[in-house]
Structures are given as C-alpha cells and as structure tokens.
Amino acid sequence: MLCDDGRMALIPLCCSLSMAAHLSPSSPFLRHDNSAPSAAIFAFRASWSADDWLLAGTGSPFGEREIDAALFPWIKSVGNDTTAAVNGAFLRSFKKVLDTSRLQAEVHAAVADKKQIVFTGHSSGGSIAVLAAIWFLEQRQNFEGRGGQVDPFCVTFGSPLVGDGVFVHALQRENWARFFLHFVMAADIIPRCLLAPLSSFKDELEAILGFLCPKPLLFSPNTVMSSPVTYYRNVLGHALSVSNHQACLLMGCTNPLLEVLTGFVKLTPYRPVGAYVLCSRDGRLLCLRNSNSILHMLFYLFQDVPGADVEEVAHRSLEAHRLYEAMTRDHLNVQNILSVDSSDSIPLTFTNGFDDKAQPVKTLLKDLDLCPLAFQSLEARLCLRAAAEWEKQRLRNQAKIDDNYSKIKEALSFLSDYRATCEVRGLGYYDTFKLQKDVEDFNANVKRLELAGLWDEIVEMLSRYELPDGFEGRQEWVKLGTQYRWLVEPLDIANYYRHSKNEDTGPYMVKGRPRRYRYTQRWLEHAERSPAGTCTESCFWASVEELCIDTGDGKPFLELRSRVVELEREVLRWVTKGSLGRDVFVSESTFARWWVTLPRQHRADSCIARFVNGEDMLETMEASI
C-alpha cells in the first residue's frame, strides 16, 4: 500500500501548499494546520538560483559533501563507519532555515498538539523537506516526550535527489525510508538534474531555473530557448551512464573495463530513497520502492521516441515540472497506482503467452512509453529484474548467515564454559589462554579460529552491502556480536602479544585489531545511541599490554599517568556495568602484576583500589617482584 487513506487525502493539499510556498518571500516555509485528518503541514520554498543547487568548493562536480554529523548522527554506514554524502547546497539551505526561522519551535508546538507532522515541497523545496524530515526523525526522542510516538510524513513533487548510496542505506537500516513519498513526472528533467555534473552546466541550469521560477523578473521566455536542448542531452547521457553502470554491478559484471571507465566518466553519487510514484502523461502512476529500480526508471522514462523533435522534447521536460498540481488534483487515485516491487511482476516478454499477472505492467509500461522500442523495452525490464533479484540475493545471503547463528551460539557457550574453568584454575581467562599450557587452551584456540571465519564472512558481506540494510540493526545479532566481542577479543589480544606481533605490526589497537570487532562494537554503540569509542571494554587487555611494555621500557610514571588514570576510570565503569569480569583482578593476572608496580600513593588514591587484592597482598607481591 502506498500510504494510508489519511495521508493520501493530504497529498493534493501538500502539492498546493508547495506551490504557494514559492510565492511567500517572507518565510522559507509555510505552515498549514489541517483539521481532518489532524496535521501540521510544513511546505518549503524552492530556490531558483543555481548557487542554491551547487555548493562551490566541495571538490566534486556534483556538489556533494559529508552530511553534518551533529545534526544527522545516524545517517552513516554503521559497520563500515562511512558518513553519508548529501548535496551541499541543499544542506546549507536547510541549516539556514533551521537556524534563522521558527521551524523548530513550530514543529515542537505541533507535536505537543498531537498533530501528524508533514514535510513537503516542490522542486528544491522538496529536497529541503527531505532533510527536515530526517532531522525530525533524528530528534524524535526529544519530541516524543511531549506528544507520544510521532511518525512524520514527507511528500515531494519533482524534487532533485538528495543523498548518496550510504544515505539510502542509513534510511533503510533505520526503517525511515517508509516515511518518504516522491512524485515524479515521466518527462520532468529536474528530478534527474543531479545525475549530471552541475558544475559543467551551471549557466544552463541558471537559465532553466529562471524559466521555471513562478515570478520571473530577469528572464524572458526566449532566454531558455538555447539552453534546454544542451542540458537535456547532458542529463540524458549521464543518466544512461549511471543506469548502465549500476546494471553491470547488479548483474555481477567482472569486466575490468568497468572500473577503468569510471575513472574517465564521473558518475553521480546520488541515489533515490523512499517510495517513488512515476507519472505518465495520461495520469497512470507506477510506484517503486527499490532504489536501484527507481534509478533505472528515471533514465528509461526520460527517453523519447526516436525522430521526435529534440527541442520540443527538451521544452516538454521543463513544462512537466509545472504539472504536479494538476496531476494530484485530476489523477491521484489509488486505482491508478500500480506497484512493482518484485521481479515476478516484471515480464521479460510481451508475447501472448506471458502470465496474466503481468497484464497491468504491460499496459502501464506502454503508457509510460517503454514499449514502442522493443530493444529499449527489454533492456529496461532486464534492469528492473536485476534490481529486484539483487534484493532477493541479499535476503538469501542473510538466510545463510542466520543459519550460522546457532553454530556461533554453541561455540560461544563452549568458550563461556572454558572461561569458568580458567577462573577455577586461579589465573584468569586472559592469562590462562595466553600461556597455552593445557589441551583445554588448545581447544579454545580452535573455537576462536572457527568463530573468526564465521564473523569475517559476515563482515565481508557487510562491507560490500551484500546483506539487507537492516541487518546491523537486528537486536539478536547486536546482542550476539557483543557477546562474541566480550568473550573472544581478549583471546585474540592474548594470541597477538603471545606471538609478539606488536613488534612487527605495532600496537594491537592501531594495526592489529580485526574488522569483526570494530563492526560489532559499532553495532552496540549504534543500538545504544552511544558516542563512538564508548564500548571498548573488550580491548581492555590491549591497553594493559601496551602499558606493561612502556613501563618495562622505563618510561616514567608521570609520562604514563594520564593513560593509567583513563584506563582505571574505564575499568570502574566496565566492572560496574558488568561488561568486564572480575577475574582481571586475580593476584597473578597480567593486570594485577602490572598495577602493583605503580607508585603507592597513586594506588591508594585509585578509583579501582577496592577491586584489587588488599594492601597486605599487594605488599607481598611487591616483595616478590
């Protein structure tokens, strides 16, 4: 279902308000309070200046920049630790609205009144609405205290793309993509404009925006006559390049020329996210939610029949940007909307023998001008099938990983039992494993290696985005990853320093820490909404080993004091939290034997003194060193 009846009823009103916002010079947005359904609609004004579409100084012809992590802390790839990129000019415009208008206060007031919050906009106003909706989602816990659970709704009309693939991944991981709905006319050039490098065609874009401006003051209708043809061809060519490149990736193309070509042809980083309703000339509507499918359709719907007058086609691509109000008024009907969400609904042939279920798709593709050219029609349908199959493959990959869940649990249970025997042996988990004296230690090492293989497979898939976007947010895997990290990383650290790998590679935390631990740590920090680097308890022994080395090398305590105090504070927090076992304090552990060498006054004042053996035992240990 595209959206519920209440939201569907708001769409024509949102479109009208979005158009009205263009004529409101006093405020960057309009607020309208609707009674039935109860909603506060925030419609953002578009900008008709090219400077507000392309941010100078980004070093990219597409004008993208890293998203502001302070405003959007979770719009990133968690495991890969990659920040999303968005259009820098749109981000700047949104931050200006946030800082200089009453947007925050009015949104807070609307939430307190328990109204549905709706963000909307036409053209670049829609891009600002997208960022506003994400800002609201990031801040939602602050709003919920005043108005209960609040889900926003963002609907745009002819809006340019906003963010890159990581941006899409983050919204889908957080399950936020469902709040976004975009209407795009089949011929409208503006939603495709960021598929081409704006920096190379800024003058043409300036003329086009001036032509589209609802109140043109400096442009006459003839101003744009020479611009749209050049710009149309440019956008179409780049849309073809990015569609073909993405199709090759989805189909598993291994031709090395693919990588070589990307070095010569700069491809847009921007990707669509949310549900897209693509509109034909006669009001038929095609709904897609698959980001890759949408990307392909933005290209294929933009083509025209060979032999058509290119100037007429180019001008039609501009005029289409003005048709949204009429479309939502005259053609927005649930019966007119066809959803294509699976590969099974996309026929590869239009012969008389195809499945009857594909008849609506056949009819709609003809309406959308995908069927007049047999070759292009087949190519488009192959791309749509490839995009749908890629999502199916990611689900199959997840099922394969899920099959290993019980195997991982069993191995962790074995190591948990091993840890209990180490405590009975009186030396502690870390040091017992590091010495490798008994067969139980050997068996524990075998389990460590088995688990490393299983987790490395998961991490490799995540690094290539071969698992569903929501995988890293699944609570059962976050919990299992945390248990794995707490139990097994100390063993990896013990093995690292037992074999003196630090002498060749450097400190464990700098060069030796495997990605499987970095990923699972970030999962927990993300789940708890904790700052990066706050869940490093499994790295405790690496810090101890490096301090032991520095102390043994004769570094003065004053030089090490800040590191020692920081470690002790963390130990107190971890032990209190229960994420660090108290076996680290046994008298013969590496930690206890190092800690007792610290100056007496420091030990007396230490925040962890009460966890370590009594002073009499410490004096005995001092005498033996």
Task: Furnish the topology, listing elements before pairings.
Blueprint lengths: L4 H17 L7 E6 L4 E6 L19 E3 L9 E2 L4 E2 L1 E3 H13 L2 H10 L3 E7 L1 H15 L1 H8 L5 E5 L5 E2 H9 L6 E6 L16 H11 L14 H24 L5 H9 L5 E2 L3 E5 L5 E4 L2 H10 L9 H10 L4 H7 L6 E3 L19 H9 L6 H30 L1 H21 L3 H7 L3 H25 L11 H24 L2 H5 L2 H5 L2 H13 L12 H13 L4 H21 L12 H6 L4 H6 L9 H10 L1
Parallel strand pairs: 2-7, 7-8, 8-10, 10-12, 13-14
Antiparallel strand pairs: 1-2, 3-6, 4-5, 9-11, 12-13
Helix pairs in contact: 1-12, 2-4, 7-8, 8-10, 8-11, 10-14, 15-17, 15-18, 16-17, 16-18, 18-21, 18-22, 22-23
pLDDT averaged over residues: 87
**Tally of separate domains:** 3
Beta-strand level of the residues, as a percent range?
5-15%
How many strands appear in the DSSP assignment?
14
What's the N-to-C terminus distance?
73 Å
Summarize the main sheet.
Answer: 8 strands, mixed
User: Portion of residues in helices?
Assistant: 40-55%
Radius of gyration in whole Å, from Cα? 30 Å
Q: Could you name the ranges where pLDDT drops below 50 across 5 or more consecutive residues?
A: 217-221, 370-375, 614-625
Overall SS class? alpha/beta
Can you tell me the overall shape?
elongated
Helix tally equals 26
Main β-sheet, spatial strand arrangement:
1-2-7-8-10-12-13-14
Domain EDS1 EP: 415-610
InterPro entries: AB_hydrolase_fold (IPR029058), EDS1-like (IPR044214), EDS1_EP (IPR041266), Fungal_lipase-type (IPR002921)
Domain Fungal lipase-type: 42-193
Keywords: Cytoplasm, Nucleus, Plant defense
